[in-house]
Design brief:
189 residues, mainly alpha, 0% strand
Amino acid sequence: MTIDEIKQELKQRLEPARYQHSLGVAEAAVRLAERFGVDRNKAELAGLLHDCAREFPQENLIDEAYRRGITVSPIEQVIPFMLHAPIGASRAKELYGVADREILEAISRHTVGGKGMSVLDKIVYFADMIEENRDYPGVEELRQLAETETLDKMLLAGFDQTLAFVLTKHGLMHQDTVTARNEVIMNLI
């Protein structure tokens, strides 16, 4: 499918605000890809499709994961929302014909990160945080970092902001986010 065909399909499947968010993530991912020397087409496609599984109701995500052979962690059992990322990678392959493993991995990791994140993984993760439709405390600071800092420094700030928010809510932290954050710190030492 072409990008335009994918956009039309997504527009039919996603709620309007989610569709606009997906367009925003694709645009932010392209900007970051150009800044960090990553294939802009891969970044655009991964950004566009990162939330393609958000059409599923939360209560169906565990069943959708099992149906696709996706392992569900104990944390994901409690917070099924986290499963939309790996299910999205599966949907990108099933519905949109995406075969590129790097794109599929970036879609799969855009919510919680993971061990050994590629540059594209990091770009899509961060683009999801800073796209123009996002409005939350701290987003402007993250957008500024996207213009001036290294990718790992940006990502560390994003992880720290996410984890600080989760801590204020006394929420569960996904082990993949902690692992990814620790790896970024090790890269910066």
